[in-house]
Amino acid sequence: MEKILRTDLAMAGLSHHTAGLSDLETFRFPDEQAFLMAARERFRGVLLLQTCNRIEVLVQGSAASLTDFLHEQGREKFEIREGVDVLRHLLQVAAGIDSMIVGEDQILGQLKRAWAASQEAGACSQVIDLCMKKAVHVGIEVRKQTKINRGSVSIGSAAVALAENLLTTLKGRHILVIGSGEMGMLVAQALAAKNLTAIYVANRTYERAVMLAGKIGGKAVHFNELRRYFTLSDVVITCTSAPHPVITKEILADVMKGRCWPLDGHPRPLVLIDIAQPRDVEEGAGEVDGVNLFTIDNLRDVNEHNMEARREEAARAEAHIEAEIDRFITMLNGASADEVLGGLFTWAEAIRLRERERACARLQGCSPETAAVIDDLTRVLTKKLLIDATYSIRACAQNGRIEEAERLVNAITRGDQSCFRKED
């Protein structure tokens, strides 16, 4: 039988499973720091995970409180989880089996960045910290023990696979990559394995474009030269971190004029793949003659094919996660014991200090050396007297019997006899 989690945990948000790009964009929190600062006033701990295909909030608190908070933040449509379901989902996300591209490794880095942001905002409680340590550890272990991440698996490589499927082959093609962050690097690495004629890399910070282009044998492009390279390219894959569209319908309409042959009425087709979140390409840009626009939503078919190849590995990953759930619950319940034990240690320390002072007073002006000996003696005695009680209280908490742990503390500190009553 599954153990009972005695710590309030809740998780809410949207992912590619049930939400499209527009829903994800509506739910997204543009100012993550401001969100964490507001949430920490309501919850003991909070973490915000935002990727290109998922936005989820993890809190140490109740599902009802999280629902109310998100409503106050203007978010109405989202999924909510609580208790052990949160633990299971968190491990599935870290293992890559809940990702759009099953087995992708980028989620581990994204979880670590969300964790660091929570810590920097002063919003990372001990429980949230333990959850993230466990999730990252399990994510790494799953990848070591299974082949779920075997081969090239990322949103970036999926975008390249989509382009290859659309054009039959990328051999001899010209491709422009806009954005040189983590996703841009993944796209560029996937493209470098293809027999391309040219790879162009553009970024608002030209030096970063130069660095990425140098790694893959491509050509760095100044951002103000984008229109020229749009005209030269067969495929454009864009993945910047801009908070607003960087490619407008107007820009594309102008670009496509330059892709027309003198005697041809229509421009040469351009495959434009936008894997940024929020989107880099203005909505409606796909209506421009000759532009074939694809987004993250179009990568779902790539994932279906990928999932078929990894189904057995995903099942092994699920089995590993299920084996970890009880240990996860025990760890978090043990953390809750620290709060209960805090009362016991505070009570014991108060008595120790009082008796130490009395002893020193009776010795009438004892030397610092004698006072130090008395202090050490009382400290050691207090610790030894509490060892068995501490073990029993922590064991109760780890096994989900937090009320029993509290009764034991009350019996010691207040003489409460209720802990000795017979249980049904």
Name its key features.
14 helices, 4-stranded antiparallel beta sheet, 10 strands, single chain, 424 residues
- The Cα radius of gyration reads 29 Å
The overall average pLDDT, rounded, is 88
Question: Which percent range describes the beta-strand content?
Answer: 5-15%
In DSSP terms (H or I, runs of 4 or more residues), the helix count works out at 14
The major sheet is characterized as:
6 strands, parallel
Helical fraction: 40-55%
What does this structure look like?
By secondary structure, the protein is α/β, with parallel strands linked by helices. It has 14 helices and 10 strands. It has helices at residues 21-27, 32-39, 63-72, 84-95, 106-120, 126-145, 155-167, 182-192, 206-216, 226-232, 249-257, 300-362, 368-398, 402-414, and strands at residues 10-15, 46-51, 54-59, 79-82, 174-178, 198-203, 219-222, 235-238, 270-274, 291-295. It has a 6-stranded parallel beta sheet, with helices on both faces. A hairpin with a 2-residue loop joins β2 (46-51) and β3 (54-59). α5 (106-120) packs antiparallel against α6 (126-145), α7 (155-167) packs across α8 and α12 (300-362) runs antiparallel to α13 (368-398). The longest helix is centred in the C-terminal third of the chain and has 63 residues, at 300-362. The radius of gyration is 29 Å and the shape is elongated. The two termini are 19 Å apart. The mean pLDDT is 88.
